[in-house]
Structures are given as structure tokens and as C-alpha cells.
């Protein structure tokens, strides 16, 4: 019995050691890394708001999933961007600002990334040069999210349409 408990504890410990904690970056830090790293990664942006329940669920269920976090940490700079950020953000010579609108406002950079479709959460995939690959609106469970992340992370999007990839990997 004690031997079984010991083996269980070792197994549990090894599983928790394999999970990689996501080190979320600011947009500014990710841009800095993309300029200084010898081999820049693609960029993943989680556009969220503090009041969004689905955003919080995706944080705990999807981004903290051991398979997802390990893959994402290895292949992407992972950025958190508050869709209602109050501070200005400068990028490529343009200053993006907070815009007051109704009860809540929005940040112009988040709106640009989401192509004007203000929906939270929205995940954004960019290539190594910060060119848009795709915004993905809505909550994603771990396995479907990982499939999307691999589609862009492994450059499958360059040779296959999503529908072909999605149906071939079932």
C-alpha cells in the first residue's frame, strides 16, 4: 500500500513538473524580444477584459493546460492585451489610444487586431514579423485551441486551407 502511494506521489510530481507555466508578456516586451532574439517566434495575443468570464475560463482551462502551455511557450511569444487598456500603445510610428464609448471603452490597438469585431476573448495569431495570420474569436477548449495553434505554429496554414487541415486531422 505504501509503495503504491509512493509511486502515485512520484507520478503526480512528474506530471506537475512537465507543465510549463505561461509567462505572459506585454506587447512592448514581445516586440523587443522579436527584435533581439536570433530566431524570433510567432506571436500570440490574448485580447481580454477584466469583466469577461469566458476570458477567465480560457485562462484556467486552456492556457494552463500542460500540453497547451508547453506548446505555446516553445513556439510563441505570448501576449496579454486588455481590450480596454487605458494606456497608449505605440507601434510602427502610430499611437493607439483608449476610446471612451458607452459604459466601457476600447483600445484602438485591440480593435485593429480584432478587425473591428469587439468580442472577448479573441486570440490573435501573428507571424514572426507581426503580420496577421488570423484572429480567432471566442472561448476555445484546450484540444481545439492546440489544433489551431499548431496550424499556425507549424506553418501548415501555408500549404493547407483550414477546412482541409481540420477534416484531415480528426
Give a brief description:
With 170 residues, the chain is α+β, with helices and mostly antiparallel strands. It contains seven helices and eight strands, in the order ααβααβββββαββαα.
Number of strands: 8
**Model regions low in confidence, pLDDT < 50 over at least 5 residues:** 4-18
Q: From N to C, what is the helix and strand string?
A: HHEHHEEEEEHEEHH
Rg over alpha carbons: 18 Å
The 3D shape can be described as globular
Q: Please identify the structural class as seen in this structure.
A: alpha+beta
Please give the share of residues in helix: 40-55%
- Characterize the main sheet: 4 strands, mixed
The tally of helices reads: 7
**How many angstroms separate the termini?**
41 Å
Strand fraction: 15-25%
Strand order of the biggest β-sheet: 2-1-7-8
**Overall pLDDT level:** 88
Write the layout of secondary structure elements.
Blueprint: H1 2-18, H2 27-36, E1 42-48, H3 53-63, H4 66-75, E2 76-82, E3 89-91, E4 94-96, E5 98-99, E6 106-107, H5 108-113, E7 122-126, E8 132-137, H6 142-153, H7 162-168
Parallel strand pairs: 1-2
Antiparallel strand pairs: 1-7, 3-4, 5-6, 7-8
Helix pairs in contact: 4-6
